[in-house]
Amino acid sequence: MSVIEEIGAGIAAVAGTAGASIVGIGRDGRGSGVVVADGQVLTNAHNLRGDEVTVTFGDGRSTRGTVTGVDPDGDLAVVAVDRAGASAIDWGAGDGLAVGSPVFGVAASFGGGVRVTFGLVSSVSRSFRGPGGRRIGGSVEHTAPLAPGSSGGPLLDADGHLVGLNTNRLGEGFYLALPADAALRGRVEALGRGESVSRPRLGIAVAPSRVASHLRQSVGLPARDGVLVREVEDDSPAARAGIRDGDLIVEIGGQAVTEADQLQEILATTPMPFEVKVVRGTDERTVSVGGEASVSGEA
């Protein structure tokens, strides 16, 4: 058997093994999903438009599903649905993927049926921006072609086992998937129990570090590492703490902040209440976020 014939046989085998577990998400086929447990479909959070969504199975049957849990920053969601006749996918070893590993991208085909493609893992430990702008790390890059509507569909190994969840298109024939490792499985199980993820947030919009440095220098202020606040949401934790537009955040919870991604990472691991050190002009002050409002430093 030639290499092409072997790949074709592998695609056919994966379609036969996993096809019944693949679903379409949305009436317009905007995304895909995969049955991961009895009555539970895993998909990307960005495929959803509310608390309910149309789910279409491989046999063409459509039904309404209800979102049980969502992690918008991690781009994950679990939808509760009557899966009559659709088997749950078997989990594989997503943490065992390495450069060169053969993988199959599977997605729902609009109107029913599945689309299966073949590729190789081209890189690991990649990152991308989630729907809310947060950086999502630890992703797997692969070359299995994915058509529009494939996000939220599974990345499978040759045995039809789940090794990743396709999430982001890089262009130029490369795609990113969240690896189906123990951490992802734990997050999915929590979402299936209704435990939606809500990460700490300040409620601010920030400028890139290079912009912050340029703006400070343009008005004669000394250079200083930090994240420049360009907008504060009304009644947000930042607003209640007294943070203002134009403040330079230099420290959160005792940890230095030099860029926006670092700020997000620190927020994700720092329980409230915590202190934020800001520079306003040339004055340095500390505010308390999430507790009783207090400010130290110059008024």
Q: What would your notes on this structure say?
A:
With 299 residues, the chain is an alpha+beta fold. It has five helices and 19 strands. Strands 13, 14, 15, 16, 17, 18 and 19 form a seven-stranded antiparallel beta sheet that branches. The relative contact order is 0.12. Mean pLDDT is 88; it is low at 292-299.
Question: Nutshell version of this structure?
Answer:
The protein has 299 residues and is an alpha+beta fold.
Question: Can you give keywords for this protein?
Answer:
alpha+beta, 299 residues, disordered C terminus, 19 strands, 40% strand
Task: Explain the layout of strands and helices.
Blueprint: H1 3-18, E1 22-25, E2 31-37, E3 40-43, E4 52-57, E5 62-71, E6 76-80, E7 102-108, E8 114-129, E9 135-142, E10 154-156, E11 162-171, E12 174-179, H2 182-192, E13 204-207, H3 209-218, E14 227-232, H4 237-241, E15 248-252, E16 255-256, H5 260-269, E17 274-280, E18 283-289, E19 295-297
Antiparallel strand pairs: 1-2, 1-4, 2-3, 3-6, 4-5, 5-6, 7-8, 7-10, 8-9, 9-12, 10-11, 11-12, 13-14, 14-15, 15-16, 15-17, 17-18, 18-19
